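Our consortium's second objective concerns turning raw sequence data into structural hypotheses that experimental partners can test. To show how far this objective has progressed, the report includes one record in full. It was chosen at random from the queue rather than selected for favorable results. The single chain below, 93 residues long, was entered without modification.
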Amino acid sequence: MSLEECHFLVDLDKPDAETKLEPRFSLDTDRWETVISYPFLNVQASSRLFRAFYFPFLSEANCKFDEYLLLKNKNVKLKKEQKEKRRKVIHHL
């Protein structure tokens, strides 16, 4: 299935790691819209100590987070029954 046919896409948005094979889909706002996003700890860019133990104020400054995104294709239309299922799923998130 090609990306043009996909209704939804789950993507780990890593601003520092964009490549030709792994583009930042969230920047293509003509095609994709963000439905929901969650922070995801970037292990390589975060301190081991601050990943293992929480220190107020220090952990936030020494840990880097990327975003997990659920993206919706703006160019593919959902059928009515698919829209109902989508509402139920998003409501539970």
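The partners drew two points from this record. The helical segments are 48-52, 58-62, 80-92. Residues 3-92 form one domain. Both points have been shared with the crystallography group to help prioritize constructs.
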